Automatic annotation (TrEMBL):
Name listed for the protein in its UniProt record: DUF4374 domain-containing protein
InterPro entries associated with the record: DUF4374
Organism: Flammeovirga aprica JL-4
Signal peptide from the UniProt entry: 1-19
Pfam families: DUF4374 (PF14298)
Keywords: Signal
Amino acid sequence: MKKQFLTLLLLSFSLISFYSCEETKEVATILDPDGKDSVETVEINKFVLGIEAEGAQDVLLTTETLTDGEVSPIGNGFEQPAWMSFFKAGNMIIAAGYTSDNIFTGYALSDQNGELENKGQLITDQGVYATTNVDENHFIAIGAPRAGFEERTIFLIDKNDMSIAGRTKTRIDERHAEDLVAFPSGVAVRGDKLFISYFLTKSEKIGDTPKAETAKIAVYDYPSMTFVKLIVDDRTSEIGRYTTDFSLQEDENGNLYSFSTASLASGFNPAPNVPSGFLRIKKDETDFDTDYFFNFQEKSGGAKINTAVYLGNGKMLVRAVVADQQHWSAYAPNIEEGYEHLSFMIADLNTQTVVPVSNIPLTGGGEMAALVKEGKVYVNVSNSKGGSLYEIDIETATATKGASIVGHYAKGIFELSATVE
């Protein structure tokens, strides 16, 4: 009788965990039955920051810690060709051109050495203003011209080779008689539906928004990208804002939440005469939940949402406008010291309560950099003197100052992982 050999996998794990939020490594050793020909793999996690350095030069770099010391782009990371936006795309980061020629570059950790590497580039024929990660293979970006009534584009991007797998042209919502056109502010895919939030703006001037007093979403079938319908809600204003990546977010139960700023500082002019707050589209539904509206402006004592990031367990971190007096003023990360007017608060979507975060200063605005990790959320705080990272304890709503940014500020805070042999 032939002797059968059974393969025995013995896993020996060595876990190095730095609770000051440093990079982690998990080592696995796989042995054959005789203890020979072992293969050691290392699971590496690294923090990745998109930083605006001196001279407005954007850099994407890795760092070992978020909580102390300095994060410096000097001699470190990938210099970008222009002013960029940084998006999380699963276990990849995509840098997208804003003032450059719509260049998309994918970055991930190498499975050879764990270092950050360029995974490929593509170019879109329109600027991109709303994105979402779909799955391990695909990423969606919504393109739009900055002026005129040209069709908008839904780009389906294949992350495996950084290529455009599909383009769908759409007009979303056009009102020629009023010179108003839809500008995308957010996108989400849930099941077999794709949702695009948008605001109506004058065709030649982004930010003139005379019809902003209702929330608006276009619903499409996915993956066919076939238009289904428009949905509106008059309890709050248009959803999201110009160039934010958090307008539509799904919770653990499959509910989709949106935020509305109703804010002059956040880009709407005139400021909508409706409250800033959260709406919900329940799981498996494609209409706004008529039984749910979280009036954030009322519950916070008058603040308005600038950006909100879902933290888990029904909680949102809100970067809130506390002085809504000047158009576009929440888009100044390097705002003059003493003129900061954005603060951090934690909003509970279930109890509809708001708690201010303590021990954190007011900040300038711009893009929202936030990383949620193990009961904490890490954010950028900046003004004309520079930027720093802060660690916020979600349960206690208290903050601790972390690493300083060498340069201006952090535009994105991420974590990537790789399995390295």
